[in-house]
Amino acid sequence: MQESDDSNRRIHLPKSETSDTQIMLLENFRPQSKLVTKVTSIEKPRFPAFDAHNHLGEAFGGGWDTKLLNELLDQLDQAGVIRYVDLDGGWGEDILNAHLDHFKAPAPERFLVFGGVDWSQWAERGEAFPDWAAGRLRIQKERGAEGLKIWMGFGLHVKDHKGSLVNVDDPRLAPIWETAGELDLPIVIHVADPVAFFDPVDETNERWEELGNHPDWQFPSPPFPPFLHIVEGLASLISHHPSTVFIGAHVSCYAENLAWVGALLDRCPNFYVDISARIGELGRQPYTARRFFLQYADRILFGSDMGPYPEAYRVIYRFLETDDEYFNYNAAPIPLQGRWHVHGLYLPDEVLEKVYFRNAERILLNYG
Predict the structure, then answer these.
(1) Which of 33, 86, 154, 321 is most exposed, with minimal Cβ within 10 Å?
(2) Between the CA of residue 7 and those of 3, 24, 201, 209, 210, what are the distances in Å?
């Protein structure tokens, strides 16, 4: 992102009796809504929650002990979360083994731990890499992994042994996806971030402030592939491996376009989505989002991606269950992604039950 002077971040307010011009930095702008609307407090979800997308790698700062584990379980109890998918099993068996030993072993009914792919090995193993990675997946399954997590670097940074960027639907990787299907390992796949991260960072970008604070979150094309190239590659990948279950993380990385996501769900019965970290996108299109939940109630999984924290969960419960209007979609004073607020979906019980735990139970516990 190009640097700009503070004048680009200033708001010039009307003249007052004490000053010709009041100047305020945009980063200090804290508008307080004057709407008088209903506020519903939900301590626990309408149905027990199965969190299908979260992490534990940072929960303990790299250290584990019984006291900390008990604190974690107490937090989940407070939030009404009965099962928790830890996607931080990593891309190597050492990481996976640590998470299995410290979380899964002492609380086997509470946690599911996913494995990963070590893309760095492609440079060393050359053309043998896909079969090698598929073999490691078998080892991870034997050790106790219950799924495969594909991180966002895939499609943006992963390169083959010749140094070429790898497309999401690269046919050479078929052994990995087919092996996952054979082993009954669902794949949670994350290939892109919000669309605005791929747009020019100028006065039209709705995430300008966020990208200014995190310039490493920008993916301009070039050098990165265009957003649509990446998500269309994801659609191609899913359609070419119908025997493998794919779960599109973050509403298939395209919560801004639910019609596109719905069309992919219609074409691919092996495809599901989780709603993790996309309440901000879904809640600003409440009519479209509610229709999406009603139509695809059997294909949507609950997820937080915000860590095992009760207050973060309660915001999501409020979004799913209530008809509250225009509220902050996270527990922070200022929304993390865009300064807009959201509206609740007020979903019926039959949909809530499926989204909160029935779908995840069917796909993650009984798949195959």
Answers:
(1) 33
(2) 12, 10, 17, 14, 18
Domain chopping of the chain, boundaries: 37-365
Peptide bond into 45 cis (omega under 30): no
For the chain, 368 residues long, the average pLDDT of each consecutive 10-residue run is: 48 55 79 91 97 83 74 97 94 86 95 96 97 97 97 96 98 98 98 96 92 93 96 98 98 98 98 97 98 98 95 96 94 75 97 98 84
CATH topology of domain 37-365: TIM Barrel (3.20.20)
Q: Which residues contact 108 (CB under 8 A, 6 or more apart)?
A: none
User: For residues 149 and 191, what is the distance between their CA atoms, to the nearest angstrom?
Assistant: 11
